[in-house]
């Protein structure tokens, strides 16, 4: 990671190196943080943040699920995200707001610890490698499963959830795959370690439901809207594992992963073993929208350099 100049901390900008926490902060011991991942893209009219309002809203909701009083509203967090990108003079970057239970008491009960909010940004390229976007990634089905819905709530984007994701990712890498697909507690498909998943079969799109221990991805939502506007039927419902081996096409969606084709699962080729035509069409439209090359017909871009109502 290449450091930038400033990090936003509880309402003001501090130097990158000064955004530090104490080792006895609650979050270090108990995973008590909620966070976001947002992308800012370079467009012909300057840098613009993709679906900022939806990300800020999800952060507020993640905090609410964990009874974490956030000292900032969604609108304030959006304004702060734009401020930190502006302060660092970046044209495109990844933005990481995080609210954590800080230093004060030790013990599981987080309620007496302060809630501190930071927003950092830095340049972040292709999440799953350069080749991935054009030709797809080789993935496996993980031997790990996602926590059941009544264990760790998946709709909260909480730090602790990513211990499970780390197990999935490390196992996949150790076995020579770029990523792992995790099943939910019923054995149905959930998602990737840090991405939602879509299947295409006979020209119809399928994606897993909110009850399958997924994060409700904002890229997932964007792709559903793009696909429906193209006239594709999109089905949200439980998908059995073997559908991975029957699908014509598979792809991941996520802020970091954007739209990444999957070319094999467990060494079984998906379709022709390369990016499929429906994936390519949706991916092209997605990149044109985020890069400001297509008109912003959904109102998804917040320009960094002018006042916005994000
Ligand atoms: N599922 C999980 C578990 C997940 O972490 C992400 C985002 C998604 C789905 C897709 O959600 P969205 O970004 O709203 O479309 N993962 C973030 C963290 C990646 C990381 O390694 O850190 C991301 O893509 O920013």
Describe the protein.
This protein has eight helices and 17 strands. Strands 8, 9, 10, 11, 12, 13, 14, 15 and 16 form a nine-stranded mixed β-sheet that branches. Strands 1, 2, 3, 4, 5, 6, 7 and 17 form an eight-stranded antiparallel β-sheet that branches. Helix 2 packs across helix 3. Helix content is 26%, strand content 29%. By secondary structure, the protein is of the alpha+beta class. It binds ligand PPE. Ligand PPE binds next to helix 6 and strand 14. The site of ligand PPE has 16 residues, from helix 6 and strand 14.
Short description:
26% of the residues lie in helices and 29% in strands.
Descriptors:
D-amino Acid Aminotransferase, Chain A, domain 2, alpha+beta, D-amino Acid Aminotransferase, Chain A, domain 1, binds ligand PPE, 310 residues, nine-stranded mixed beta sheet, eight-stranded antiparallel beta sheet, globular, single chain, 29% strand
């Amino acid at each position: 990671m290449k450091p930038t100049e400033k990090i936003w901390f509880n309402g003001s900008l501090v130097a990158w190196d000064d955004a530090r926490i104490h080792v006895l902060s609650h979050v270090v011991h108990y995973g008590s943080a909620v966070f976001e991942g947002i992308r800012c893209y370079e467009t012909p009219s300057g840098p613009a943040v993709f679906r900022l309002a939806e990300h800020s809203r999800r952060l507020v909701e993640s905090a609410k699920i964990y009874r974490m009083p956030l000292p900032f509203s969604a609108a304030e967090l959006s304004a702060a995200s734009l401020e930190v990108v502006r302060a660092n003079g970046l044209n495109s970057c990844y933005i990481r707001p995080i609210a954590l239970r800080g230093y004060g008491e030790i013990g599981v009960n987080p309620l007496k610890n302060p809630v501190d909010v930071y927003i950092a940004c830095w340049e972040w390229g292709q999440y799953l490698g350069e080749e991935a976007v054009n030709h797809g990634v080789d993935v496996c089905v993980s031997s790990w499963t996602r926590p059941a819905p009544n264990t760790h709530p998946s709709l909260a984007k909480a730090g602790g959830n990513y211990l499970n994701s780390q197990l999935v990712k490390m196992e996949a890498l150790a076995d020579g795959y770029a990523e792992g697909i995790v099943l939910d507690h019923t054995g149905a498909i959930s998602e990737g370690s840090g991405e939602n998943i879509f299947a295409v079969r006979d020209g119809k799109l399928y994606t897993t439901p909110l009850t399958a221990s997924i994060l409700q991805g904002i890229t997932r939502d964007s792709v559903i809207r793009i696909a429906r506007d193209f006239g594709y039927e999109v089905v949200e419902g439980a998908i059995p594992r073997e559908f991975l081996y029957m699908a014509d096409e598979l792809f991941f969606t996520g802020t970091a992963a954007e739209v990444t084709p999957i070319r094999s699962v467990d060494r079984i080729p998906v379709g022709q073993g390369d990016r499929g035509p429906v994936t390519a069409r949706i991916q092209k439209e997605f990149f044109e929208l985020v890069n400001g090359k297509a008109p912003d017909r959904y109102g998804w871009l917040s320009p960094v350099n002018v006042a916005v109502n994000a």
